[in-house]
What does this fold into?
Amino acid sequence: MPGGRPRAFDPDAALDRALEVFWRQGYEGTSLSDLTTAMGINRPSLYGTFGNKEELFAKVLERYVGGPGAFAAEALEAPTVREVAERLVRGAVELTSGPGTPGGCLNVKSVHACGPDSAPARQAAIDCRKAGETALRRRLEQAPDLPPGQDPATLARLLHTITDGIAVQAAGGRPHDELSEIAELALRALLPPDGSAS
Amino acid sequence: MPGGRPRAFDPDAALDRALEVFWRQGYEGTSLSDLTTAMGINRPSLYGTFGNKEELFAKVLERYVGGPGAFAAEALEAPTVREVAERLVRGAVELTSGPGTPGGCLNVKSVHACGPDSAPARQAAIDCRKAGETALRRRLEQAPDLPPGQDPATLARLLHTITDGIAVQAAGGRPHDELSEIAELALRALLPPDGSAS
DNA sequence: GAGGTAATGTACCGATAGGTAAAAAAATAT
DNA sequence: ATATTTTTTTACCTATCGGTACATTACCTC
It folds into this structure.
């Protein structure tokens, strides 16, 4: 089985470039020319290696979840509800307003790509969100410090809602330090330091 | 000064049609053809009456704030922090997942229109958000039941963050009843029924 | 009526969108 | 060296993008 001409670029590095563009400009705001320029390859190479724009986006989203967004899955390894929540919320602040990254969250941005041609990309983002939330709910169900009357599903959804809100705020230009204050207040309210009701 | 040919459509009704399209499809996902079709007018009429796409969007956003989004300003008339927060958060649930409206929030969607050509529309949304948040902070500063150690600016930002999160959840397809549960849990956490610390 | 004025309908503009055909180039296999 | 395979390069495709020129129509004033 012969080899053919070798690929002149590193697909993972190219994916990282594509990720940055999609992250900054959103799915609908990114053209194929933006992508090929950033990736340093030409159009047929992109199609040959990654498929079309939709498929490239799906691969980019996967890479996002396993890279910049990996904190969300790792947070579930914390032993208590409190620590899981802290790591999720603080991680969202860093992800969306940290230095050197585009503002906001690629996933949240992609949910808002709601033009007629963006349905597949949007659905990919929604599926990804659902998977993350299911994992969070399962984790909360098994936590030792889950408050008695608390429904883990609703708590997971609220945590998800708060991280979503943080992403919107970051996308709207909220600076990192203010976002941290917001996050800490949310954590204090959700998980009071002593042991208050909810 | 003579009048010329009278306009054959109602500008406000046309704005409402445009609002619905922008709300459902987002700024970037909406084409001029989508707009003219929905508004029932042709292209030169649109440009003659509303300016270009950007200016039309600005007018639509204004109409959104004064129409479907008016609950946010009206919520500030409530006497207490608790009631202001309740009306804001519950209003966000109704706005973004209520029956008969497109999912999500036009403002939050527009913040995520971050392609190169969408900068003015995005900025209009951001300005609008800033104005709303400033009004909320001023209102909280004067509320009689603001907890002593509480910074009204941060509380306003957290409330804003929560309503943003609700909008994202709605845009992602979260059904209305689940969103209500999330909202009520957030309100309980933020403003405990008795008088706990935060 | 005639003239002025503003909105309408139609047809069009250059630019760019996502996507591809076909030939040239670089590797392996025999 | 030759044949085969795969990628790259270049050039191009149709459709649609936001925006407009121009002639026509409908109204008001005189």
